[in-house]
Specification:
10 helices; alpha/beta; Aldehyde Oxidoreductase, domain 3; six-stranded parallel beta sheet; four-stranded antiparallel beta sheet
Length: 269
Amino acid sequence: MPIERSQVERWLREDLGHHDVTNDVPGETTGRLVAKESGVVAGLDAAEAVFDYLGVAVDERAEDGTRIDEGDTVLRVSGPASDVLRGERVAVNITGHASGIATRTREAVDAARTESDAVEIAGTRKTTPGLRGVEKRAIAAGGGDTHRLDLSHMVMVKDNHIAELGMESAIARFRERVSFATKIEVEVERPSEAADAAAAGADIVLLDNMSPAETERAVETTSDDVLTEASGGITLDDVPAYAATGVDVISMGSLTHSAAALDLSFRTD
């Protein structure tokens, strides 16, 4: 999901309005985006796209996924003072938001590694409308897995599908309609249902809102060729306990919907 010029235009139109007098400043200037706290930086591709749209040169930038400390400069720009100042707030907001997600994701990955070197930390579709691309790239920058980017990337058979069709019928129906390359994941709520979903043809079994003990029991009932995913209200503090269950993936909506923005500041020189 590359940053589209039309998306940048919407961001800037929202912030600048119709008659920006505040930033009507003559001359040329340089500026830099500085970290006010430590974390993992992300979203700089979006910040660069903002300044590029305004005709401001990006002279230096850190790589997304880089660990940064308080006081580090992550982006340097130069150009007309009015355009540098007009891009400042959008660039800070987007980068801070993305960096908060990357930082939270790295914390979750590090927590998982205390118990398992194999388990993946993944995001979900609980993203901000219009910002999914930015947020998914931030998860990747933090060392996580993006999970499906949209509904077309995988079939997710959830409780409502099962209530309407039954588990086996739902899996069979979707199997007939998808490409050979499309995975089918089935959500179950009890350990005993995990083996049923695997036997019915699920490629991945989502263990929804189960405790670590229940998750471990469910993992033990599935074959090695079926992936297992733990999800549902899992916090950073919970990650080590779930990582120790042998589950393949831990997905966390909180990576995107609850990550605090990383504190960044833009300063002209």
